[in-house]
Amino acid sequence: MKSKKNEHSFFGDLKLKPVKVEPFIWHLSPKRNREGILNRGLLIDEDKKLIYANNFNCDLHSMWPIPIESMNISFGLGFKSDESIKSSLIAAVAPYFDFWRIDTKKLATEWFVDPFLRKEIRVYSHCKNNPKSYVCTFSPISNRYLQLFEYDPNLKEEVLIIEKEGVINTLGMKLPLKKVLINEHY
Questions:
Q1: Chain centroid to CA 6: how far?
Q2: Model confidence over 107-140: pLDDT tens digits?
Q3: Burial (Cβ within 10 Å: 0-12, 13-18, ≥19) of residue 162
Q4: Can you give the pTM of this predicted structure?
Q5: Which residues pair with 177 in a beta bridge?
Q6: Coil, strand, or helix at residue 121?
Q7: I want to staple 143 with a disulfide (CB 3.0 to 4.6 A). Which of 41, 66, 70, 96 is the partner?
C-alpha cells in the first residue's frame, strides 16, 4: 500500500500526517524538568522518539497531559462537566507543570498530527475533538524558541475581545498563566 504524500512512517504502520501549527504552541513538562529544558531545550525522548505539543491557546484543561492527570482526581468527583469541577481539576494538576510556549514563527521544523492522541482525545479531553490540536515533531527544540510560563491560580481564563470601528471580535482565550522571569529563579 502506498503512503500518502508527505506522510512519514513511524512505529511500522503508523503514519504521521503533516499539519500547520499556530504561531505559538505549548509543551507541558513536569517542573522537575525545568532546569534541563532551560539549559538544553526540548530534547527527543528516547522512548517516545518525538516531542509533543498542544496546537491551541484556548483551554488549559484540554492541554495534554492535564486531561489524563486530572482523570484520577475526577473519578472521585464523577464525570460532571461543571465549570467549578473543571477549575478544581486545573488547580489540582496545573501547578505541577511548566508551560513552555514554542515560537513556531521563528522555529523552522515540520510538525505532525500526534498519532497517539488523534483517537483518544474524544475520551480524555472535554472539548478538543480536533486531531490537529495535538502535534509532534522529530526535531529537538532549542531553548531560544521557548518561553517559560506557569499556572497562576489568581488569574482566570477569560475571553479576549477587541472592538474596532464598532465591530466586536473574539480573539480567543487568555489562559491563567504568567511568564516566568528566568533571573528570578536561576
A1: 24
A2: 999 999 988 775 555 444 444 567 788 899 999 9
A3: exposed
A4: 0.76
A5: 151
A6: helix
A7: 41
| Partners of 174 in the β-ladder | 158
- For cell 525522548, the residue is 45
The residue written with cell numbers 478544581 in the block is 88
Give the integer Cα–Cα distance in Å for 162 and 156.
18
d(CA 41, CA 23): 18
Vertex 131 angle, CA 127 and 137, to 5° = 125
Alpha-carbon span 112 to 20, nearest angstrom:
8
- C-alpha angle 89/130/77, rounded to 5°? 20
Measured over the CA atoms of residue 182, residue 142, residue 40 and residue 21, the dihedral's sign is: positive
List the Cα angle 69/72/78 in 5-degree steps.
125
Q: Which of 39, 96, 41, 44 is nearest to 72 (CA)?
A: 96
Per-residue model confidence (pLDDT) at position 144: 95
Q: Cα–Cα distance between 114 and 134 in angstroms, integer?
A: 5
Phi, psi of 40 (to 5 degrees): -120, -5
State the DSSP code for 116.
Answer: T
Q: Which of 97, 131, 115, 121 is nearest to 26 (CA)?
A: 97
Query: Peptide bond before 18: cis, by omega within 30 degrees of 0?
Result: no
Residues facing 25 on adjacent strands: 102
Residue 9: strand pairing partners: 15
